[in-house]
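CORE FACILITY INTAKE
Project code: CF-77B
Contact: R.S. (postdoc)
Sample description: multi-component assembly, two entities in total
Requested service: structural model of the whole complex
Turnaround: standard
Below are the sequence entries exactly as provided by the requester. Do not edit them.
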Amino acid sequence: MARNVQQSLPLSVVVALLLSASMAAAQTSSTSTGVSRLMNPAISVNGLFLGTVSRDNPASDANGIFLQEAEVEFTSVVDPFWTADVIVVWAQQEDSETYDTLIETASLRSTNMPAGLGLTLGKFFLPFGKQAMLHPHQWAFVDAPLAVDEFIPGMLDVGVSVDMSVPLPWYSELVIYGTDGQAGVFDSDNRDLSYGARLSNMWDLSMDGTLEFGGSFISGPGADRELTGSNQKNIFGADLTYKWSSGSLSQGPAVNWTNEIVIPEPDNNATGNPFGFYSQFQYRFARTWWMGLAYGLTRDKSVYEGGFESLEGWNEAKFNVAFVPSEFSTIRAEVAYQERDDSSADDLRFSIQWSFTIGSHPAHLY
Amino acid sequence: MSAIKTILLVVIMMTAVVGHSLADLKVVTTISDLARIAEAVGGDDAQVSTLCPGPRDPHFLPAKPSLARKLAKADLLCYNGLELEIGWLPLLLNKARNPRIKPGSEGDMDCSGAIKTILDIPDGNVDRAMGDIHALGNPHYTLNPENAVLIAKEMAYRMGQLDPENKAAYKDRATVFAGEVASRLPGWYEQLSEARTKSIILYHSHWNYFTHWQHLKVVGEIENRPGITPSPRHVQSVIEKGRDLDGVMIVAAQWDHQDVAEDVAERIGTSLAVLPGYSGAQKGTDNYFDFIDRLCTRMAEAATAASKE
């Protein structure tokens, strides 16, 4: 018996040592629980909610309280040559209780391009103007400006983008891109590719203020046009932005003033020169409080009055006040008025919108 | 033809002369304190610029793409680290498109790596209910001149790696910088002997390295959660605490919301010292030594004023 015990002791010790060794290995080098965790991407979640009611359309399905959008973002270094960014969005379908899943971004960004070039491959926001590249939780108002909504909606596509600094005495950046032609603005039945470019220039007016002027162009598959005989759709844009924030007071007064014009070539059967314009002004009047004012218009259809051609469209005005206790949450109250030139669809709308961000969310563009 | 050749030769010679006179190593720092140290170490062999000017709170620097122009030309990026620049540096690096300074490259220098003791590393779980807390520890370590010496030595090493020709010069200048700090330390310490008898209420934990180095007694903070507006209840509790103590002084940076700090000082009945947050934040503090001098002088004046209250 004693012999057996003597024989079994070394065995138990060996087993214990093996177990402890395997556990230690699991804690330090297992691919399931060890170093692989350190390689996980940064993850963030954003929720955007809206409560809205219309004075002029009280029975509209647009009235109510909604989860406008939930967004999950993953960002990480891929290897010594690339970083990656993936954004998945669940957005409520218009006038519906169901949600669409959309991969908003899934792109690689090179970290090793020569000659000061940048390269992006995958699905990304097409760089056109100032507003079209923003996620809804970054918008200054509840809705995008009419000019953006009508003329450059859904500016997401799969393709290649190259960006570079232009050697000028001020900051100047040129982005050129070619994509699949499936952005919301184009005709998805037409399989032609699209391409575009954006040139943005920025000047430091002072230590605290900047002026940015940008020009954008995009061309892609449109519906056949009877007038031009071309099925290529071209859109031009220009934007002017002034920004200022107090350099002497942390989280002190700040101003953002953005102006943008979008000029598409006329669609089927339309004549004249359609365009859209908006001007948005935001002011931080206290450490955690912002106010915003906006005006916008679109002219999208030709009408003939007394033998003269004019363009008919929409006008809008908005005002909001936002409480921003930190960079991770916002609550804002907004009143927005839209009217059609012929007064056929005027709408006064009151909204409350709130958003939150949790996790490691990348900083937003300037 | 010979005239053209002569002109070309002159142009080439002038270019060579001008090129020689310009520093070859381009160093960009994120905050002004690091720029002053880099200038001391780099001397004429390095061209130093900074992204966040002294008067700006580096927590909230707008990521102006124009700043990326500086980064695009940099050979060495010296940043504070500990997530002080997390809100803007990644954006600027992306815009700069400069592989020489990308994370992990030779030109990427996280200066916090040179610091031996990081203060205020939170215990246990960290979440944003605590405000804009720095999970890796308090990032304002340049306010302790002993840390500036460590940074200078590390900068000299990194500059020497990138510019081996001037390696000895960088090392020599770092040694001179360290000697200058060492010669001033006793005076700076002596200057605040009266302040060590006072209790200090900070607006923000910006000053912890300075107070730790000087063995000053911090009894509270007006901004109890970093980056978040202090609640009236908390402000009231700070005031009551200050009233219960003898010899209290309030300390704030020039970019802090001084209306709150002034109100607290007035209701306690004591003095408020408004200090430059980093070198260059106030006139006459462009030099790192002048900056530390100013901190000590203002703090000493506030201590004297607090004694008279």
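Facility notes:
- Confidence is low (pLDDT under 50) at residues 8-22 of chain B.
- DSSP finds ten helices and eight strands in chain B.
Invoice: internal transfer
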